[in-house]
Amino acid sequence: MGRVTKNEQLSERKIKQTKPEATETPQSLSNGSHTTPSGWKIEDSEELYRINGWGDPYFSINAAGHVTVSPKGDRGGSLDLYELVNALKQRNLSLPLLIRFSDILEDRIERLNAAFSKAIARYNYNGAYKGVFPVKCNQQRHLVEALVRFGQPHQFGLEAGSKPELMIALATLKTPGALLICNGYKDHEYIEMAILAQQLGRTAIIVLEQIEEVDLIIEASRKLGIKPIVGVRGKLSSKGIGRWGTSAGDRAKFGLTVPEILTTVDKLRAADLLDSLQLLHYHIGSQISSIAVVKDAIREASQIYVELAKLGASMKYMDVGGGLGVDYDGSKTNFYASKNYNIQNYANDIVAEIKEACTERNLPVPTLISESGRAIASHQSVLVFDVLGTSDAPTSLPDPIQEGEHLIIRNLYETYQSISSENYQEMFHDATQFKEEAISLFNFGYVSLPERAKAERLYWACCEKILGVVRQQEYVPDDLEDLEKIMASIYYVNLSVFQSAPDSWAIDQLFPIMPIHRLDEEPTKRATLADLTCDSDGKIDQFIDLYDVKHVLELHSFDADQPYYLGMFLNGAYQEIMGNLHNLFGDTNAVHITLTPKGYHIDHVVKGDTMTEVLGYVQYDSEDLVESIRQQTEHALQEKRITIQESQLLLQNYERSLSRYTYLSA
Ligand SMILES: *Cc1c(COP(=O)(O)O)cnc(C)c1O
Fold first, then answer.
1. What range does the domain containing 466 cover?
2. Can you give the pLDDT at residue 245?
3. Distance 3 CA to ligand 1 centre (A)
4. Which residue from 136, 166, 247 has its CB within 8 A of the most atoms of ligand 1, so it is best to mutate?
5. Are 301 and 365 contained in the same domain?
6. What is the pLDDT of residues 544-573, one digit of tens each?
C-alpha cells in the first residue's frame, strides 16, 4: 500500500546542514593501476562508506578491515561478517546469501518500545503504547514468528493489510493483550473472521478504509450477534513528503474523508454500534523524512480523535500508522534516503500532541499504536554477494606515435600530452571532437580498424588524465560532471537487482552498499554494479553519499583468484516479497543467525530456489524437460551428430543444473 511507480521523480534535494566535513576521497583514486600509497586506515573506510552514520549500532569495521555485526546493538557481542560468510559457504550455502540477524529484530522492537515508554513517562501520559508490525513489510514465516515472540513482553501485535496477511496474523499472533489491526480491502469472509477472532481472545480491530465497509460490518455483526471493534482510517489533509507523499490527502487511495467519517458515525449509531467505534487510524506514507510532517499529521488526527469522542464514539485507540523512517545514507537530514529525527523524537511528538488535545477536552488519553514496519525490519538482514568480474575503460596509452601516423591520431596524442589544470575543460572538448571525427572518417573508409582502435584508446587515456585533474578541483564544471560516470569500472555482481533490491530499480531507493572485507586497504577503483540479468536496468549506479547521491562506488581492485564480497545493508523491509523472477533468478539462500555466548547459532536455513522450482513457477515440468533433451540426444546419436560420451555429458549437466541454485557459482 502507498507505493508509487518507477516514473515518479525525486524532487527533493538533501538539505545541506553544515559545511562539508573533510569527506574528500583520496586524490589517487583512479581506474588506472596506480600503486596504493600506504597509510589507508580503517577510519578512512568508515568515513568513505559512512558506516557509522547508517550502521550504528549494528554495523562497524574491525581491526582486520572486516565489517562486524553487533546484533544486540549496544548490549554487547559481535560477529565478523566476512568470517561468518566464509563459514556459511563451507556449509554449502552459496552466494548471494541473505543473512538475517534475529537479535537485530529484537533490538529494534526493544528500541521502539523503550522510546514510547520514555515518552509516556516524560509526559505523564496515562495510557499505554501497543505497537503492531505491518506484515506486508516482511511476511517470511521465521521472521514473523520471531517478531511475535520478541514482542510478547510489550504486547506487540500485527497489522494485516490484506486477506492473506490476515490468515498469517490470525494463526501467528497469540500474545494476550496484543492488538490485531485489520486493514486493507475486506469482504464478508474477512470481516466475519475478524469479528470471530474476538471469541478466541484476540483484540481484532477492523479498520474501515472504504465507506462501503461499514454496511458489511453492521451486517456481519447482526448475523453473528457479536459487537465488533471498529476503527476508521482518516484521510488527513496533512501530506507526507517524498515518494509516498500521495498516501495522504484528499485523493489518497485509502481512508475516509471527514464527511465519510460522519456518515459512518451516523450509520453505526443507527445500528446501535457507536460504542464499537474505538480507533482512529491514519497512514500518511512510508519513510517520512521530516519530523515536521509527523507533527502536522498527529496534530490534525488528534483533533479528529477528540471530535469523534465528542460525537459519542467510545474512543480508546489512536493508530498513527507507519512512516517511521530509516536513515539509509546516515546523513540525519530530511533527504528522502534519510530522516531528520530519531525514534525518541518521534515518540515524544506523538505522545505530547495527543495528550494535549485530550487534556484540553478532559478526555482520557488513548492507547497508542504505531504500525512501524520499515523501522523494525530493515536493519535485520544483510545481503552478501560476490563480484564475478570487472570491465574497465581501456585507458592504457597505446604505443608512441610513429612516422606517417594518421593526422587524427596525432591530434589526439597531442591533446593527451598538453592536458593541464589550466586547459582541461577545453582539452576534454577537443578530445571528444577528435574521437567523433575519427569515427566519421572510419565510416567513410579513411581510417582503418586498428587506427580507430588507437584513436579510441587515446580518447579514453585523455579522459582519464582529465579526470585526474578534475578530481583536484574544488568546482567541477557541469559538462565534466559525467566524466566520473563515463570512466567508471563496471563490476559484475552475482545477484539480480529485480529479485534482491527491487526498490533500487523501481523507485531508485538507496541502500548502503560496501565491501565487507579489505577495508584496511585503499579502494582504488570507482565502479557501478551490473547484475546477472540481461536487462540494462539490472544495475546499480546510485549510491549513498553525504550530499545527494553519488554515481560511482569506491571499490578495491578485483583479482579473479580472490573472492571479493560486497554487502547490501538495511534491505530487510519490502525487498524480499516484491522481488521478482526476472530472467528466472529465484529467491536467494537465507539464513537466520542468533548470537550465542560462544559465537552464533544458525537457527534456520532457507534454501533459495532451484532451477526446477523457478521453472515450475512458469509451468515447466523438469522431467518433461529432461525427456526432451534425452530424445534429442537419441536422435542426434542415430544420425551420428553426437558421440555417446557427449550425449551423456550434456544430459548430466542438464539434470544436475535443474537441482541447482539459479545464481552462478564463482
Ligand atoms: C505500509 C504500511 C505501513 C508500514 O509503513 P512503514 O513506513 O514501513 O512503517 C503501516 N500501515 C499501513 C496502513 C501501511 O500501508
1. 407-483
2. 63
3. 10
4. 136
5. yes
6. 998 889 999 999 999 999 999 999 999 999
